[in-house]
Amino acid sequence: MQPQTDVVERTTDEALERLKAVSDLDGLEEWRVSTLGRNGALTQILRSLGSVPKEERPRLGAAANRAKTVLEQHLAEREQELKTAHLADVVERESIDVTLPGWPVPQGRLHPTTRMLRETTSVFASMGFQVEEGPEIELDRYNFDLLNIPKDHPARDMWDTLWIDRVDEQGNRPMLLRTHTSPMQARIMEKTSPPVRVVVPGKCYRYEATDATHEWHFHQVEGLAVDKGITFADLKGTLYEFARRTFGEDRQIRFRCDFFPFVEPGVDMSISNFKDPKTGKRPINRDEDWIEILGAGMVHPSVLEGVGYDPSVYTGFAFGMGVERIAMLKYGIDDIRLFYSNDVRFLQQV
Ligand code: DAH
What we know:
The chain is of the alpha+beta class and about 350 residues long. The protein is built from eleven helices and ten strands. The protein is about 40% helix and about 20% strand.
């Protein structure tokens, strides 16, 4: 029956015509459903084969099956084409222009205090001092008692203390935030026998109002050397060497008598801050010729006794310095509060 084979041909031609107009994968899926899908044009023909006179069935069936194969082939080809085009489009749109300049990635750096701490400890390490750290929450016994500062003694007024809501192991004396790194002197001597040569970098706290030269938290480096025959000359030599390495040859150093309960004699050491004769400027913008950077002295016999060292056999020297103050002096920073203000303009300079 001629007309029915015509229908197959017409349906096929029409479908191929529509296929040409399909421009994307969604459109292709629509085309597939409407042509080869369950209710698609060709499927309808194949389904209606049952109602065709028997002798016509083989021819029509064969024609419809050929048409199906042809359409499926075209579908596969078109699908491949569209996929390739789609991929090319994605590659084109999402490609990276490697010649464009990159975004700058901000770089972190060490805090000026950290740098100063490391520099300072490495100067002493090169002179044979070991480096040790200790607890920031401290017992009254180490922060004061063993440093020859008994309870209720007026010398305690030198350190405005932050006490905390925690008590020692015996449960009767409140603990504190260490006011200096000196408690480590006693802790170290208690657990080692002489000779001792150690520096202790660390954070300290004081119950203080802040201003350009005072912070309620800051860092110190403590030093301690104990052995037979250690003299004040050893102390001076060590600190001169430190100052020379840290500030250079042209800054001057001054020792003056000072009082600290855990040393006898006690001194403080200052670094010169003279006006430059040419520019009239000082290394640090403060109207002072000398700036104090540390306290030091010969370890008090009572301190040695307290930790079980025999003061008639051993002598030693100790020192404690303010790390931020040294950084201020070295880099010409005139306000200690900058170290904790977290202003990146300040932090990025070092
Ligand atoms: N610990 C003292 C302070 O914070 C500084 C100090 C002075 C430390 C004399 C010492 C020393 O070791 O011998 O003010």
